[in-house]
Amino acid sequence: MAKEHNIKRSITIYSWNRQVEAGTMTWEDCIKAAVKLGCNGIELLGQLYFRYCPEALEEDIDSWNELMWKYGTKTVAHDFFVDKTLFNHRNLTVKEGVDIVRRHAEFARSIGCPVMRIGGQVDPEVFRQSIPYLEKNKVKMGLEIHSGSSSFVLDSVQKVIDVIRTEGSKYIGIVPDMSMFCKEISQRQINSALSTGIDPELVKKTVELYKEVDNVKFREFCNAELEKASDDMTKRFLAMVRRTEYFDPKVLEEHMDYTVHVHGKFYEMNDDCEETTIDYPGVLEVFKNSNYQGYISAEYEGAPINGDTLEPFRRYEKMLDKYLGTYPDANYPEWPEAKPVNIKSVGMTSQAVAPEGFKNHYEDGKCTGFEVKVHNFYYRGVPLALFESCYVTIDGKMYGPESMHVAVDGECFKFEDMCDVTLHYWNKGELATIIIDEPGGLVPGKEYEVSAVANVRAYYMREGIAAFTGGEVVMPPAEKMTLEA
Hints:
Elements: E1 8-12, H1 17-22, H2 27-36, E2 41-45, H3 46-49, H4 58-71, E3 74-80, H5 94-110, E4 115-118, H6 124-137, E5 140-145, H7 155-167, E6 172-176, H8 187-195, H9 200-212, H10 215-228, H11 232-241, E7 262-266, H12 280-289, E8 295-300, H13 311-324, E9 359-363, E10 366-374, E11 382-383, E12 387-394, E13 397-399, E14 404-408, E15 411-414, E16 425-426, E17 432-437, E18 447-456, E19 479-482
Helix pairs in contact: 5-6, 6-7, 10-11
């Protein structure tokens, strides 16, 4: 019999953002699926759903609150970041970081959300100086403790924890992510590495060593192999696996007093409804024994199972049933349709060009160039200061950021002038218009081969994850498009 507890369940609908982007699901479908899975808590990345977040439009706030009321759900966490690299020439000051926290806390209050999860690397002084604004808005803020980018092994994380302990405010804490409890390198990563031609002996050595040494020594090994690697696929594999970590779940016991939320990350679910890489039995036992009473928010970063996007979540919730006790299934007659989509992730070259809006551009009756529209494949809307560059090819001829203007939401900028535009957003799901200088334009009605990439800078750390890291521009295969007559 399961030990008595008050652990609640939620889902971060970031897990389905690619389906929404591709039009195979709506945000309402995401809420319906969460309820069908027995989860009444919804975690969201505000800059996915809300335009101009954290200064969200009232109509968007109203529509979100109506969804929560309609399905009997509640918003339990809002994910955000302090945009450390908001400016490309310097890091943010502490005061600027605190102001971002203040604005997001006010937004969270507007949707009745009691917790904010802040990701990436955060100056401990931002935590200390944000307490009055968090208390005023009655919103708690937790640093996500995530493998690789913000784990327990990092000095910067320990400094934040020191502030949390010293200040003793219930409004600052941590959000453990289950990625820290990986028992082994996932089979998905192994299969992916082998399928791309990476040396099988290196893969085998990496997988075996992970089980034998601690996190620090494993990362040192990966860094050393990265220095020796000559091909991009090997570098990508090592860069990804070096983020993998394992901690004894009992490490959570000393942090339970200020754990404000939990990210239930999972990667692979087998036919027996067990996560194959993460020590979930050990972690859940610690949460039960430590009287954790918050939410565990399911967050999936894996592939569909048998072509079914929702099947991994069904298996995950059945796993929680096994260790936490059964949650009731909701009485919806049908599951929402959730077709898998194949969109490349951040750091990989995706075709950004949209099929519409390829036409000549006129100013004062004179054709000064042409326009293409592009998608934002980053996983949130961003201030324009983070829209770093764009490259477009027309029949093999490349145009770079120096020859473009960007039109977004009624305003038009040169890239060089966008570097300090922080309160005008390229909202998620919206298209940006790239206006390219080419006197006389192109030939109307003619078919061209068109390709585009849009580069958005990773924003919560100066080093680490980045959408593009410089060097040669890699373009995706071109699309055949006819210039509007």
